[in-house]
Every structure is written in structure tokens, then in C-alpha cells.
Structure to design on (322 residues):
């Protein structure tokens, strides 16, 4: 089964874990997943700028990733202000504090939007 | 594919050269320096605790001389001054301080580059990471502040040399994941990763 076919059968509430080794084609997998779902319903939870290496790798591959700049990006610390940053949560403080802030943010966000999480 | 062919195809990004301690990373270093000098770029070497000295010595024993006068060097610790030293940074795990120092020196460097790309070599990445690698918080902080920071600056090539023997598994895997190209120097030199490609191609 192709990944894009599998993704068509995903229903709200499902959780997908993408496991990968350090040397992998994970940027391409990311691109396929993003391509298979409705882009208006995505939030990117980006811990410590992890999206940057994926973005750079896709760019070097010649893939048009300009759409990434419009996707709402919730950053977990990190230095990059790139893209459509909607909020930032410090991950260096206590994990409990991070989770409660994250929960408050997502409850608020989802009361206004419907969507699914990526990363 | 040769190392030169690979470098010709790299417009920007991070290259990781990981080597076994008993092998010869200085040869590929020499090839890369020669390539960039011939292309009209000015290579900048960040030399952590005299790694450049070791590379230069190993090359000299093989009868190869590096054109040291054409290489700009930022010393990060160490005591042997080789090449055209334009500044010094102490080895530190205060990454904000490191970055500020690096930026101050690199600005000077940028003035001397009229054309061509900025190509930065980091020799002794392992030695830099070694002191804090067992502290996961510090290690992530390093990747956040320094290593991933190079993603945001376009049109630059950064080449990191890391001794696989001195860094732990976590550090090495993170370096591999966040690099756009991974070259392994073992008995042979192989390209393990390039954008959109994962493999084991001889260089």
C-alpha cells in the first residue's frame, strides 16, 4: 500500500507515529503526508526548530515548499522566527508547565479551528 | 561520483564528514579546501583545540602541503596558530557567548569576501561537543543555538568534521539527522545522505 493511500483512510482521532533513523527520507515522508491532508487544517508543533532541516532538505531537493510558510507554526522554544508563528511555548521549563501551556493553547485554538496535528 | 562532483552540486547547506579515528579525514579536507580555493571562494576554518594542526601534520607526513596562507582561521581554544588567524574564541558551553564571538569575527571575514560563497569548515566538532554531550539539556541547546542556526542563513556551505570515536550515539545521530549531506570516512569514503537520497555511494 502506498503511504498516500493509507493516509486517505485516516479518520479524526487517529494518531500516526513516524519512526525514522537519523539518515532517512523523512523530509519526503513529511511532504507526502502534508500533501495528502487538507492544508487548512494543519498546525505544526515545531520543537527546537526541527522543521528547518526538513524544509532545507526539501528545498535542496528542488521541491516547492513555499506553502510551509503559511501553515500555522507553534514553536516549542527554538530560535527561528520563520513562517507563520502563532505562539511559542518554552520547552526548557518543567515538562508539566509545557504540557499545561500547550493544553491551554490547543483548547483555545481548537475552539476556533478544527484541525489535526503534525509533528 | 568524486568529492569535487559532489561539492559542485552543493549550492548551500550543511555537510557532515564523520570519520573513524584511525582513518584519514585530512585527505578529504585537503580535497575540499583545494576545490573551494580553485572556485574562488575563501575557506574559513573554525579550528577547535588545534585540530587543524593535527590535519596539517598528517598531510605533511603524506607529502602534501596545505596552502595555509590562503585559509582564514578562527581559533577555538588550542595554542598552535596555523593559517591566517583572524580571531579567537574560548571553548565554552555558553552557546550565546560563542555565537556572539563568532559573529563578531565572521563579520570581519565577510569584508574580505568580495565574491564567492562563504564556506566554513569546523574541525574538531567532536572535541567541542565532548565536554557537554552527556548532559542532554546542554546537547539539545547546542543543536538549537548553534547547529540548526546554520539552516536559516542561505547561500552558505558549512562543513563539520566529527570523530565518531569521541561523540556519543545521541550526539552523532542528531548531527546526522540535521545535516543535509553526510559523508563517512572509513576504509573508503562514502556518501550516506544527500537531499532526497539515502545510500552508500563511493566518493
Amino acid at each position: 500500500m502506498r503511504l498516500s493511500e493509507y493516509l486517505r483512510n485516516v479518520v479524526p482521532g487517529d494518531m500516526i507515529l513516524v519512526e525514522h533513523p537519523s539518515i532517512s527520507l523523512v523530509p519526503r515522508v513529511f511532504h507526502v503526508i502534508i500533501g495528502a491532508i487538507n492544508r487548512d487544517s494543519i498546525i505544526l508543533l515545531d520543537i527546537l526548530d526541527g522543521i528547518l532541516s526538513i524544509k532545507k532538505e526539501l528545498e535542496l531537493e528542488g521541491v516547492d515548499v513555499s506553502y510551509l510558510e503559511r501553515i500555522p507554526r507553534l514553536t516549542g522554544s527554538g530560535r527561528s522566527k520563520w513562517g507563520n508563528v502563532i505562539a511559542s511555548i518554552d520547552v526548557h521549563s518543567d515538562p508539566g508547565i509545557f504540557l499545561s501551556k500547550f493544553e491551554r493553547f490547543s483548547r483555545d485554538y481548537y475552539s476556533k479551528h478544527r484541525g489535526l496535528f503534525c509533528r | 561520483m568524486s568529492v569535487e562532483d559532489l561539492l559542485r552540486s552543493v549550492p548551500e547547506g550543511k555537510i557532515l564528514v564523520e570519520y573513524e579515528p584511525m582513518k584519514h579525514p585530512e585527505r578529504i579536507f585537503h580535497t575540499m579546501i583545494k576545490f573551494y580555493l580553485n572556485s574562488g571562494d575563501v575557506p574559513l576554518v573554525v579550528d577547535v583545540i588545534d585540530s587543524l594542526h593535527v590535519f596539517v601534520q598528517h598531510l605533511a607526513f603524506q607529502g602534501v602541503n596545505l596552502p595555509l596562507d590562503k585559509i582564514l582561521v578562527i581559533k577555538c581554544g588550542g595554542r598552535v596558530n596555523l593559517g591566517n588567524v583572524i580571531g579567537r574564541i574560548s571553548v565554552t558551553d555558553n552557546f550565546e557567548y560563542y555565537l556572539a564571538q563568532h559573529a563578531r569575527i565572521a563579520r570581519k571575514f565577510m569584508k574580505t569576501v568580495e565574491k564567492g560563497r562563504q564556506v566554513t569548515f569546523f574541525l574538531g566538532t567532536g572535541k567541542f561537543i565532548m565536554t557537554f554531550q552527556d548532559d542532554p539539556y546542554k546537547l539539545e541547546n547546542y543543536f538549537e543555538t548553534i547547529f540548526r542556526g546554520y539552516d536559516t542563513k542561505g547561500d552558505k556551505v558549512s562543513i563539520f568534521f566529527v570523530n565518531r570515536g569521541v561523540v556519543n550515539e545521541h550526539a552523532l545521530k542528531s548531527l546526522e539527522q540535521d545535516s543535509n549531506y553526510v559523508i563517512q570516512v572509513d576504509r573508503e569514503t562514502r556518501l550516506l545522505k544527500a537531499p532526497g537520497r539515502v545510500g552508500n555511494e563511493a566518493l
About this structure: Chain A touches chain B through 23 residues (CB under 8 Å). The helical segments of chain A are 3-8, 26-36, 50-60, 95-112. The mean pLDDT of chain A is 86.
